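Researcher: I'd like a candidate sequence for this fold, 190 residues long. If you have to choose between options at a position, lean toward the conservative one.
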């Protein structure tokens, strides 16, 4: 059985997006990105919401042409080649090895999990909420950033039963970002 792991940047006060849907507030440095890449290489598919995909597609396809660091070259090459799915109501013809999923996304994800595919969801707050609502999340990797936004879009919009979650590990980074990795104690049924 495959799985879906939600990777989400959140503020200390639980927001996944800042006021006015701001998403460029996380402290994402090379140390954190290097950790990401090592983990992402184990995924069969990367999952995105439309807004997050647009941000990624605007930068990573050419980030290796004038790289800031060797990491940019490595991640850009990885990102272009990785299979990607975008949950969207509007995107029709994505590029960069990407396919759009519409309203029936939950059935497609369940099918892929049944086939043994491991997927990483970068989503965005709205997409994460939809995956949580459809009970598609098997693991959570929450990257808590050392800032208080005070307002915005929370990751968890409705109460979530956390009694079935088991803490796998906690990593801390020099930037003071803390990654908390949780796994459902019982597998999510498809």
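Model: Candidate sequence:
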């Amino acid at each position: 059985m495959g799985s879906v792991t939600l990777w989400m940047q959140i503020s200390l006060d639980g927001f996944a997006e800042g006021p006015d849907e701001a998403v460029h507030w996380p402290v994402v440095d090379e140390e954190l990105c290097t950790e990401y890449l090592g983990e992402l290489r184990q995924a069969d598919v990367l999952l995105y919401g439309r807004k997050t995909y647009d941000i990624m597609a605007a930068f990573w396809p050419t980030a290796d042409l004038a790289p800031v660091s060797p990491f940019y070259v490595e991640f850009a090459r990885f990102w272009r080649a990785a299979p990607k799915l975008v949950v969207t109501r509007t995107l029709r013809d994505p590029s960069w090895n990407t396919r759009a999923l519409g309203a029936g996304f939950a059935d497609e994800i369940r099918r892929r999990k049944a086939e043994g595919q491991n997927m990483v969801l970068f989503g965005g707050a709205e997409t994460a909420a939809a995956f949580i609502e459809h009970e598609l999340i098997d693991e959570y990797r929450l990257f808590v950033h050392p800032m208080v936004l005070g307002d915005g879009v929370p990751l968890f919009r409705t109460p979530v039963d956390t009694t079935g979650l088991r803490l796998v590990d906690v990593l801390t980074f020099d930037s003071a970002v803390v990654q908390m990795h949780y796994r459902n104690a019982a597998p999510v049924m498809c």
